[in-house]
Amino acid sequence: RNVELPTLLHFSAKYGFKKLTSLLMRCPGAMQAYSVMNKDGDYPNNLAEKSGFSDLRQYMDEYAVSELRECS
Q: Which domains are delineated in the chain?
């Protein structure tokens, strides 16, 4: 995509909105949003890390792994 924040999940992660990110990660389509790269090649979890929210990145990564396990 040609924008910095192509999804609400990117926005939430960049600004460290933990409750919103948690809510968004549980919504239908969350894994699709988690897999979208922005114009700089960053995924939402990368934006969280780059913005100083390493705990949020860890939460997002752990949640994504648990979702993948449930689907397999």
A: 8-71 (1.25.40)
